[in-house]
Amino acid sequence: MVKMLQKKFIAAAMAAVSVLLLVLIGTINVANCLVSSRQMNEQLTMLADIEKQVIKRQKAETEYEKFPNRYFHLPNEQDKNFSKGGLFHPPMDEDMAMSLRFFTVYLDKHDKVIRKDISRIASVSEEEAEAYAKQAVQAEKILGYLEHFKYQVLTVRENDAWFTDDKIIIFLDVSGQFRSIGMVIVLSISVGAVCWICMLLLVILLSKKAIRPIAQNIQKQRQFVTDAGHEIKTPLAIIQANIDAMELISGENKWSRNIRSQTVRLNGLMQNLLTLAKMDEESLVLSMEQLSLSDLLEDAIQSFCEAAALKHICLEQKISPEIFIKGNCEYIRRLISILLDNAVKYTNDDGAISILLKKEGHIAVLQIQNTCEQLPQDEAEKMFDRFYRGDSARTQKNGGYGIGLSAAYAIVNVHKGEITADYPDEHTIRFVVKI
Prior knowledge:
Helices cover 54% and strands 17% of the residues.
């Protein structure tokens, strides 16, 4: 129980840490990608502005040579749209432009390559530059990516006094930005993984201290149940012996019958509480042996035939022979007894109990199904909770005390099996054990 509680604490703590790290790493990388994308767009815009200014100046100089007496405004540094930069992006100026690796392709209005400028990049030939330009034209995008290049298409408008109806495509090498983004991703994930491992070790070291008060309370509760169970056993045995002696002398009466029935009830409660306490012990090691589940089930059914007959219950059984399991004989008998006792107690008069034992592969399947007047309002799986009672008033009408199914659940768990409960219809409860 303590180890399970410790594992749940570690799992919950690490789940919270994992979510926090994922959000943090994701936010950092998304922000880095957005900032890098913005920088690339600004760099392309800066190159486009520079290109426009160059073309305007060339056009003005050409017109000035033709008409020397006409006034022309020549673009200067103030006409260039440069940025001083900020916290998340470098300054956009001519120094930045000189450090960029890019090439430019000029096209006419028929998308035919007129000129290529590859003076600012060494890894691209004129043929490759022309091939990139054709791909960009086919993509029909103003902004886009081609391998490790980001490009922008400038449309030269005919009605602009400085331009003709041509196109200019600027290709910016962004491999450095891609490497930077990849490096941030790898570093953030690596640092996050190291932090996650460190947090795991820290949580493991602190988990015992964190759950120590709860573990101590569980241990005290378990010890109290065990001690109380053993202490109550002796007075119960004395009461039972006195009742037997009194009935031998004075004969049986309603008071002696009531005392006997309540003694049996209390003894059953103590047995189940002791079973649960023992199942919760982490050091519990049961002696396992090869058992005939078919024989154990048939023997147990005989003990409940009389109780079923008193309520006119139809007992249907379909037990496959020679079904063997590896388990503890004492606890498997108790498991079967709990399930049969529960079925007889809660089956309505003139009802029916169906018992099925079969083999599915290497797994033995025990199914006990019984009718009832009214199903519990809660989910079927809640019946395995300790001290759960289907009736909210917790009456003793059926003689139950809400601990038997919890003991059955614990026994199945110790045997590495599975027990489930469901409602096949509105008047039937079914329990299925797989071991």
